[in-house]
What does this fold into?
Amino acid sequence: MPALLSPRALLPAALSGLLALAQPACAQTVAEPAAPGLRLADAELDRIRGGFLTNDGLAIAFGIESAVYINGVLKTTTTLQLAAGAASGPVVLPGVSLVQNGPGNSYLTSGGISVPVGGAVVQNTLDNQAIQHITTINATVNSAQIMKAQSFEATLRGALVDSLRR
It folds into this structure.
C-alpha cells in the first residue's frame, strides 16, 4: 500500500500545516505614511508590523534570494524578505534583472514577453559558458527564545518545588 506522504513531501506538508496554524500579527492600516526621513518610535513600529505569529508566540520569517552566476562570477542577486514582524500591507517586489553575456544582446519589452516579477533574464551569445541560477529559501523561527522561556519555567518550577520540601 503506497504511503500518503513521501518523505520528500513531508517537509512542505509540515510547513503548510505550521503556516495554517499561524495567524497574522496585529496590524492596522496607517492613514498617513510618515514623512520621508522621519524615524518612527518603536511603539509605532510595533503597532504596524505583521508577520507569522502562532498563538504561543512562535514567530516565523522567510527570505528568498535568487543569484545568477556566469563562469563562477556573481552577476546579479534578487532578495525578498518576509520577516516576522514585517508590515502586512503591500510588499514592494523586486524588479527584473537583466544579465547580458557576450556581444549582440538586445532586450525589448514591447514584444509582449512576460517576465515574472523578481525574475532574471539571462542573454548569452557566447559558447561554453557555465550559467548558474541559484534560489535559496531561508526560514527563521524564534524557537530558541521559546526554549529559553521553557527552561526558565522548568528551573523556577523546580526551585519552588524544592523550597516546599524543606
Confidence is low (pLDDT under 50) at residues 23-31.
